[in-house]
């Protein structure tokens, strides 16, 4: 069965909002890790805010401008989770579907039953937090940057219930960014 995975850029003090304000490097090691993530993904979940950022950028990028990223993002099926949007589009690509929040669990259940690779949540910290609360996320990778942002939305602010994680792996880049991957324990496991 397919897994639902999330990977988020995050500061050492837990901020996930606006990585463009605090991310200072993107080295070869980070590119390799993110490339591996792309190779293991064939469906993308986006929250409304990330969708509004991405839809203005990615559909206009040529495969040469951001190499594998533009090709992958533009051609991979995307599911935008929103209760406020009435429609979604992706430029000349017919690869995006609107999912109402109340339909998220059922949509994920259907997608997980289909053959394929991972279903990845890209960016979208509010959606990730919501999925953690609802036990809809199987795996979480925190891409911890060596910076303290001091302000901005933190990933786990507003989390209501205790959640247990099992460490899967840690990897660090030469520039000091650390990839920490966890499996999220379901409520019925100890």
List keywords for this structure.
190 residues, alpha/beta, Dihydrofolate Reductase, subunit A
Low-confidence stretches: none
Instruction: Specify the biggest β-sheet.
Output: 8 strands, mixed
CATH superfamily: Dihydrofolate Reductase, subunit A
- Protein structure class: alpha/beta
Instruction: Count the DSSP helices.
Output: 5
Radius of gyration (CA) equals 16 Å
Find the count of extended strands (DSSP E, 2+ residues).
Answer: 8
Helix content range of the residues, please? Answer: 25-40%
For this structure, the quaternary state is single chain
Q: Based on the structure given, which CATH architecture is correct?
A: 3-Layer(aba) Sandwich
What's the shape? globular
SSE arrangement:
Blueprint: E1 4-11, H1 28-39, E2 41-47, H2 48-55, H3 67-75, E3 78-81, E4 96-99, H4 104-113, E5 118-122, H5 125-133, E6 139-145, E7 165-172, E8 178-184
Parallel strand pairs: 1-5, 1-6, 2-3, 2-5, 3-4
Antiparallel strand pairs: 6-8, 7-8
